[in-house]
Design goal:
The complex is a heterodimer of chains A (about 350) and B (about 500). Chain A is of the alpha/beta class. Chain A is about 45% helix and about 20% strand. Chain A has two domains: about 10-215, P-loop containing nucleotide triphosphate hydrolases (Rossmann fold), CATH 3.40.50; about 230-345, Helicase, Ruva Protein, domain 3 (Orthogonal Bundle), CATH 1.10.8. In chain A, the strands form five sheets. Chain A has a five-stranded parallel sheet. Chain A has a two-stranded antiparallel sheet with strand order 4-5. In chain A, strands 7-8 form a two-stranded antiparallel sheet. The relative contact order of chain A is 0.15. The model of chain A has no long low-confidence stretch (mean pLDDT about 85). In chain B, helix 1 packs antiparallel against helix 2 (about 65-90). Chain B has three domains: about 5-165, no CATH class; about 170-235; about 245-385, no CATH class. Mean pLDDT of chain B is about 70; it is low at about 1-15 and about 380-405. Chain B has 17 helices and four strands. The radius of gyration of chain B is 52 Å and the shape is elongated. The chains are: A alpha/beta (about 350), B mainly alpha (about 500). Strand 1 (about 5) of chain A pairs parallel with strand 1 (about 120) of chain B.
Amino acid sequence: MKETSTLVSPERILAAKQLCDKVLDELDKILLGQRDLHRMVLVGLLSKGHILLEGLPGLGKTALVKALGDLMQLEFRRVQFTPDLMPGDILGTHILQEDEKGAREMSFRPGPVFTNLLLADEINRASPKTQSAMLETMQERCVTLLGTTRPLPAPFFVLASQNPIELEGTYPLPEAQLDRFMFRLLVKQVNAGVLSEIIRTRRHGEAPKPDWSLSREELTGLFDTLNGIYLSKPVADYIARVVGATHPGDALAPEVVKDYVTYGASPRAAIAIAEAARAHALTAGRPSAGFEDARAVAGFVLNHRVILNYKARFDKIGTTEVVERLLAAVPSVMTDLPKAVTVEGA
Amino acid sequence: MERPCSEGKCVANSMHSMATQRLAKELGDRIMTRLFLLYGLRAIAIWGFAAGTILCGTRFALGGVSLFVLAAGLAGLFIGLALAGLLAWRRGLTRAQLLALLDAGNPTGGLLSAIGEEGLAPGGWESPHIEFPRVACCWRPAAGPALAAVVFFVGCAWLPLPQSRLMERHRLDAQQAVDQVKDMIQGLEEGGLLKDEDAAHWREELDQLAKQASGTEPAKTWESLDYMKESLEQKTEEALKEAEAFGQTLQMAEAAAAGLQALAEAGKLTAGQQSEAAEALQNALENAAQATGQELPEDLKKALAGMKGLSLTPEQMRKLREALQHASTGQRADLEALKRAKLLTQEELDQWLETMSSGCKGGSCTNAAALALALAELGQCGKDLAGGDPSSCTSGLPGKGGVSRGRGDAALTWSGTTQPGNEKFKAEALPKASLQDLAHAKPIGVSYGAAEEKGNATVSAGALGGAVAGISEARGHTVLPRHRGTVERYFGRGQKQSK
């Protein structure tokens, strides 16, 4: 007889949701007018994914990451990526040292990547060589140097930022690098009301310190609860269909994908959507991930994984618009119903 | 995921699952209903156009549609609807799909799908409030063609269509022959030779035959019509014979009635004889009617019934004669109806009338007076009318004729005169001559003088047997009596012609 498992209890979900709300409230206090961004960052962190923040300078990207480090009591390090930055500057390096007896040996000096929360500021300014050094750390969460693999502390998150306008002297991130970021979040300009509030309450732009912080146990508990969030088969099917439809050759691909997309998203994107949907369901206080959770995160997962063609550039179509139209075109539930019969919400 | 459920929680979970299943079933029913209606409309559209086309084609080509074809067409509609139901059932959604639809239409976070999956208990989660998603169906693409198909079918069924030339070419025009047979039936019906129900049956058969008349198989139609014609003509012939027999009986009865009337007026019959004569007359008429299958007219029946057991008064006899005359007139009218139906020719009718009028005509019967005398003599002979033979009472009467063969003093009637020169004789071979002698004869020369007499040669056989050669012999030859008539006619022939 098949063993029956049970959904996560409402009490646990409620407790987790309260913690999430508290983190979000604190983030909202520190960084005004970015509630949605904070939620998605939290979702990304709970999913143990890396996040690429993209926005104009001065919008608070670095401040957000700093606040997260403080709030979650995570070790935080910041690396300013420059064109002359070398991989050893990030990963660490072996240096020749002489001990007390006069013997010399190579000792490892860990780089800034050995931390919980790494802020890779303006990551696109580093050379491809240095960018590639991040591949193993982001995917394997370990560093291999001189044949020795060293694990990174858990949890390990990379929050990278890049400036979309100052492109001179930058190196666009390769696709493999981009694929390792769970989300690409666009940091938007705040409105005048929020800006007025910032001016009024912040002297010299200093962000306030959080009143409360998340303990390590609470964070671990959140991760445990997240592991219990259920993903039903119809939702998993939906995610698979959405990712499949990003490829122009797919049967379900809408016209916008066929017209403007050169390469679609990888299976890693599907995994990322599923994980992020679970985290989104947890922040919403639900024991299972639904269609709305998948739809809420899919755009941020796919917008940097879909490679557009030149036609899209000429037509001034961005990945965000393509993904939005793609999500509108893919049905939540695949049925064999004739076109004349439609079920609302399907 | 947590540990397996405890016993009490599983019961609650089961109820939760039942509620979920009920929701899914309700949604499934809604979708199924719309699918069935949609496919049903499409089935109606397909059926309407197909059946309408077949109907039009059949009507155009064959000129009509049988009830069987119409019933088969309706059966096709029901089969189409059944197929629509089957298709709707096959296209119906699974439970997982229905739960997913409910999830997609509600902010449940996939909870219904999760609970619906096997091996997962909902735990303490309450069933969320579900707003049933609206199941929309675009009817226009299906309803429009269905409506058009129904209109098309009705139009094909009711609107008049021109007959195809193909049909006209293959159609056999047997209407003239059919009308002729119909006239025959009507004539027989008017003549009382065919009962009403039989006539109706014949007409029905005839109509069906006219409908099915096809140029591709004309022999069948003509054979059927010929058979009907022959049957009717045979019936007419039999009827004519019966009418003739009955008519003769009526004539005889009328003559007898005239004779009896004369006797009654003269007071020459006793009361008993009168009663006996009336009874005999009645029996004779009834027997004749029964034998010929005829029916006595009502007034004649009344007249005969009125005479039964009574002495015949002149008034009764007059009524009887009138009834008999009326019966004869009715019979004549029946035969005239047959003639109108061309079942009888004018010659046949005239011949029948002549035959029937040989006894009595215009109320006067040829032998009425003689019959009266015969009856009177029969009474004098002391014999009964019914059992006696009137021909045996011949004293005092000229000739030896009887009642049925006419009287001796009746005028001679000749059927025809013999034309001279047209006599026909029975061929009779004369005795052969002695050809053997001629075979051995030898010519000795040709002479233009009289034959030379040579001895006493005699002819051994033939008409000149025994005669010897020589003129005198030839002249003096005695012609035997058996040849005299022939010889006289031979030689007298030229004299007659010269005259």
